Amino acid sequence: MSGERRRQIGAALLIALFATGFLVGEDVPPRANSATPQNSEQVAGNQEQNGLSQATSAPSADTAPSADTAPAPGSQRPIRIDVDLVLVNVSVIDPYNRFVTGLSKEHFRIFENEEVQGISHFSNEDVPISIGLLFDASGSMSDKIDKARMSVMQFFRMSNPADEFFLIGFNDRPFQVSEFTEDATELQNKLNFTEAKGRTSLFDAMYLGLHEMKKAKYARKVLLVISDGGDNHSRYSERDIKRAVQESDVQIYAIGIYEPYSSRSRTPEELAGPSLLTEIAESTGGRQFPVENLNDLPDIARKIGRELRSVYVLGYRPTNDVRDGKWRKIQVKLQAPRGLPPLQLFNKAGYYAPQP
After folding, report:
1. Which pLDDT score, from 0 to 100, does residue 50 have?
2. How far apart are CA 229 and CA 276, in angstroms?
């Protein structure tokens, strides 16, 4: 073998050794994931699960239950998150049910278990949101479903172009109409083929929606429920859902399409529906909007869409860093500028601290 040929082979061996890391005595770093890189907002959304800046024990999104494979009630372990920055969405409403904008960080005070916290993050910008729509397609919606579809269309018109949506319908059981998409037109077209039949599995739909929200790419997450009454056909109980809602960091809004109170056709579930949806929604910082006149549906949907763009986001690092797994109650107070009428605040009720 010629000298020139030996030099070529030697150079090739050196290059190979550098490529494998043997020559410098270091492990070769793992190959980067070949999936499409996320942008900074997507990364932030994944890191701020449950309104906190770091997630540790949340189940993988790949294990989220389908309508057929949802785990039995009570079989899921509570989700616990490492506390770094607690984020609280706050809506401020005046006596005429209008949104109050233009407030600053100095106008808010936040308390955890009655102890004042320092606000280290404040914003009220229109940022993209991950939104799940839970659409009642039970038989009792047969004469209301067209107006309900129209309300969804009006809601989409108020959205941020970068918002992402998924759609779950429910009657005897919840069913996935669309996974997360930014194409609101596609989702609207799929909704038009939804038929009204069967009973109302509202709790099962909410549970499935909370699990689907684990796939969200944005920090702010909202479920919008459109239904005409309470639950009458779910595996999950009211207690199961209230607990699951507490352990998530998902705001819930609801449009309740109810028969007039004077109507004799209202079932016990329908009679309990308004107070139940109100309690669940307000515990997350959201609201429930009752509707008796179907013609009001589109306006209510637009109003919710505007409210989502008018929310203040407060963040704080808890002074209590004990990992006791206990419920931490959150209270937000407003020191409004002079001249404003009495104002009402809506924010989540609290969160669970991480386990020891």
Report:
1. 42
2. 10
CA-based Rg of the chain, rounded to a whole angstrom? 25
CATH 3.40.50.410 in the chain, residues? 130-308
Let me know: does 245 contact 215? Beta carbons within 8 Å: no
The C-alpha atoms of residue 252 and residue 116 are separated, in whole angstroms, by 26
Question: What whole-number distance in Å separates Cα of residue 60 and Cα of residue 75?
Answer: 16
CB atoms within 10 A of CB 104: 10
Q: Are 173 and 66 in contact (CB under 8 A)?
A: no
pLDDT digits (tens, 9 = 90+) for 132-141: 999 999 998 9
List, in sequence order, every beta strand (DSSP E) within the chain. Answer: 86-93, 108-112, 115-117, 119-123, 130-136, 164-170, 174-181, 221-227, 251-257, 288-291, 312-316, 327-334, 344-346, 350-352
**Average model confidence (pLDDT) across the chain:** 80
Q: Is the pLDDT of residue 111 over 60?
A: yes
Q: Report pLDDT digits (tens) over 196-216.
A: 999 999 999 999 999 999 999
Q: How far is the C-alpha of 178 from the C-alpha of 333, rounded, in Å?
A: 39
| CATH code of the domain made up of 130-308 | 3.40.50.410
